[in-house]
Specification:
Layout lengths: L11 E9 L2 E10 L5 E9 L10 E2 L18
């Protein structure tokens, strides 16, 4: 069953995902009311192949728009 990762009812989009072994990393942009309706970049992770994810964490938390998130994982 799909599980929402977004923090609220605001608009969100531009999801990006990366994985390494059992770890899954997910970023997206989301409109936030706490920063004057700007778009911020959020991050969530899973260490059990995506069964459960951490709470979304606002990485940018800025007063301006943050857009077009990118993510990558490395085996080294």
């Amino acid at each position: 069953m799909p599980k929402p990762l977004s923090n609220g009812a605001e608009n969100s989009g531009d999801p990006q995902i990366s994985s390494q072994g059992n770890n899954v990393y997910f970023v997206w942009e989301e409109e936030t009311t706490s920063t004057s309706n700007n778009r911020d970049i959020f991050f969530a992770s899973s260490d059990n192949s995506g069964e459960d994810f951490s709470l979304g964490h606002n990485l940018s938390n800025s007063t301006g728009d943050s857009e077009t998130p990118q993510i990558s994982s490395n085996t080294s």
